[in-house]
Amino acid sequence: MKSQKMKILAFSLFFALAATGCTLTAGTVPTPGSTSGSPASVPVNPSNAPNITKPGVTQPATKPTTTPVTTTAAGSGQTPGTKPSTTTAGTTTAGSTTTNPINPSDIKSGEAYDTATVRDWTRNASQAAYYPKQKLVFLTFDDGPSTKVTPLVLDVLKKNNVKATFFYYTHGDLSSRAGIVRRTADEGHAIAIHTASHNYKKLYPGRKANVEAILSDVRTATSNIQTVLGTSWKPSVYRFPGGSFSWTGSTSARKAMTQAKQALGNMGLQYLDWNAMTGDADYNNRDKSPSGLVKYAVKTTKNAYGHVIVLLMHDADHLPNTPKALQGLIDYYREQGYEFGILK
Ligand SMILES: [Zn+2]
Predict the structure, then answer these.
(1) How many whole angstroms from 162 Cα to the centroid of ligand 1?
(2) Nearest Cα to 149, choosing from 320, 300, 18, 334?
(3) Closest CA to 142 of 306, 331, 310
(4) 219 Cα: distance to centroid of ligand 1 (angstroms)
(5) CATH no. for residue 328?
(6) Residue 203 C-alpha to ligand 1 middle, in angstroms?
(7) 3-state secondary structure of 128
(8) Considering the domain boundaries, does residue 63 fall inside one?
(9) H or E stretch including 339?
(10) In terms of CB atoms within 10 Å, which of 9, 14, 182, 326 comes out highest?
(11) Domain range for residue 197?
């Protein structure tokens, strides 16, 4: 009886928050078509109905057989690896890589990587024209900037000399947070578009992408950021509020989402979801302590396909444990031999 009440309360809260465009995030969105209301947590290959091995975590039919380069520089952030003797481009696949078009010396921390390529690596690695041998992680933060949380995130990143990508939720105005925006840019992080409104009802009425509403929202967010950084700043990376995979529950919704992606592409924006997460913004009973967030990130990283990881986190006012988990996350990825990339 009590849990039923709680469920009703939780769902009421969900719709109330979604309606007001709060920072409700993808991890909290029931998967379209799902009757259980379980969260759409970690998409890997949402378009091709991959084998589902556990709730919310999907994997493609085949795993890459490429062995990641063994590293010896745990903790240093440097990953020397073994340099291949060839740089032939576009002739290999993740499943049967014999040559690698990317020289491992080009895979290094702080480098910016083409978003469409990273998307291929995380979603369709087995079909990607090439796949890096190096382990690569992209730390991504949605829903900021936050005066309370973002500076703490930036502090940890700075201390570790690690760069990240920030997907902004501008709230329609960044003037009170202009200092954080400038600091983020000055310290070499990537700034990307998330949304101006975070209003699911407006962006996805009937759980279906409204292309015009999305483009309008992107233009507003862009203008908000340019007010601070100037018009020389141009957006090139976009993350759908809720994740693109959350809004493809019917044939017409899938078509609308495809159109939205194409329209964004015409504006010069490449979208990117994620394949691992700390679960920091999820509404569930999972452990949200700093160590709990690290634990879930490790779990979803291990479940992700391949070794190019896009990790979802949030720098939002109400999530103080995210910056507290960040050192542990950086330590984990370094120990595992990952380099830290940003999106361009
Ligand atoms: Zn968001």
Answers:
(1) 22
(2) 320
(3) 310
(4) 17
(5) 3.20.20.370
(6) 12
(7) coil
(8) no
(9) strand 339-343
(10) 326
(11) 104-343
Q: In terms of Cα–Cα distance, which of 200, 227, 140 is closest to 14?
A: 200
| Count of domains for the chain | 1
Residue-level pLDDT, tens digit, the chain, 344 residues: 444 444 444 444 333 333 333 334 444 333 333 323 333 455 543 333 222 223 233 333 233 333 232 222 222 332 322 222 222 333 333 333 333 344 445 556 668 899 998 998 998 777 777 788 889 999 999 999 999 999 999 999 999 999 999 999 999 789 999 999 999 999 999 999 999 999 999 999 999 999 999 999 999 999 999 999 999 999 999 999 999 999 999 999 999 999 999 999 999 999 999 999 999 999 999 999 999 999 999 999 999 989 999 999 999 999 999 999 999 999 999 999 999 999 98
39 CA to centre of ligand 1 in angstroms: 14
Tell whether 293 is covered by a domain: yes
From the CA of 232, how far away is ligand 1's center (Å)? Answer: 25
Q: Of 302, 243, 314, 226, whose CA–CA distance to 278 is shortest?
A: 314
CA of 205 from ligand 1 middle (Å) equals 17
Q: Rounded to the nearest 5°, which phi and psi values hold at 102? A: -105, 120
Amino acid at 204: Y
CA–centroid distance, 94 to ligand 1, in Å, is: 31
Q: Who contacts 27 (Cβ-Cβ below 8 Å, separation ≥6)?
A: 39, 40, 41, 277, 279, 281, 282, 283, 312
Ligand 1 centroid to residue 201 C-alpha, Å: 14
Is there a domain that residue 62 lies in?
Answer: no
Q: How far is the CA of 281 from the centre of ligand 1 (A)?
A: 9
Find where tokens 């032939």 sit: 88
Distance of CA 280 to the CA centre of its chain: 13
In this structure, the chain runs to a length of 344
Domain membership of residue 180 (yes or no) is yes
Q: By the 8 A CB rule, do 318 and 23 touch?
A: yes
Instruction: Report every protein residue that has its C-beta within 5 angstroms of ion ligand 1.
Output: 25, 142-143, 241
